[in-house]
Amino acid sequence: MSFTSAGGKNTFFHRTMSFEPITGPDVPRSHLPFSPAVRAGGFVFVSGQASTDEQGNLVLDTFENEMRRTMENIRKILAAAGLSLKDVVQVRGYLIDSSYWDEYNRLYREYFTEPFPARTTIVKCLGRVKVELDVTAYDGKQGTPS
Questions:
Q1: Rounded-to-integer distance, Cα 81 and Cα 5, Å
Q2: How far apart are CA 72 and CA 60, in angstroms?
Q3: Most buried of 33, 37, 79, 118 (most Cβ within 10 A)?
Q4: How far is CA 144 from its chain centroid?
Q5: Are the beta carbons of 89 and 140 closer than 8 angstroms?
Q6: Model pTM?
């Protein structure tokens, strides 16, 4: 939103961008009111993913298994958008406890390589699952961001 003064009149300009939900038969479902991912301009924003089955039910397990299931859910969503983990430019991670920090970084390096995406990780913020991730990917084929 921007504010300008034209000819003595104050005017607000609100620019809207449409977005397209990412769907597909392999995209994990959710019981909650959000899209698993949306495409806006040249970006795909993947909502927080955790260790869930195809119907969106939580699958509680070891940290490693939860992380791998979470990453597989993200891969499926990105694939439905025509993208892969190589297109990820931002990762936000949420860990139930800092005791998983080293394991998180070890597993993270299996999925992402240098140059690594930008990343933020917050600990002690989850309830039942041990890890949740949301990512932003850039689709260069869609042109430059608006």
A1: 41
A2: 15
A3: 37
A4: 20
A5: no
A6: 0.85
1-55 pLDDT per residue, tens: 444 445 555 555 555 668 899 999 999 988 889 999 999 999 999 999 999 998 8
Q: 48 near 88, Cβ under 8 Å?
A: no
DSSP code at position 116: P
**Residue 79 exposed, middle or buried by CB count within 10 Å (0-12, 13-18, 19+):** middle
Walk me through the domains of the chain, giving residue ranges and CATH numbers: 19-142 (3.30.1330.40)
How many whole angstroms separate alpha carbon 115 and alpha carbon 62?
28
CA distances, 83 to each of 37, 103, 139 (Å): 12, 26, 7
Tokens in use for 1? Answer: 């939103």
Q: Which contiguous run of DSSP H or E holds residue 134?
A: strand 131-138
Encoding tokens for residue 96? 């139930």
What is d(CA 120, CA 103) in angstroms, rounded to the nearest whole number?
A: 16
Residue-wise pLDDT for 92-138, tens only, equals 999 999 999 999 999 999 999 999 999 999 999 999 999 999 999 99
Helix, strand, coil tally for the chain in percent (to 5): 25, 30, 40
Omega of the bond leading into 115 within 30 degrees of 0 (cis): yes
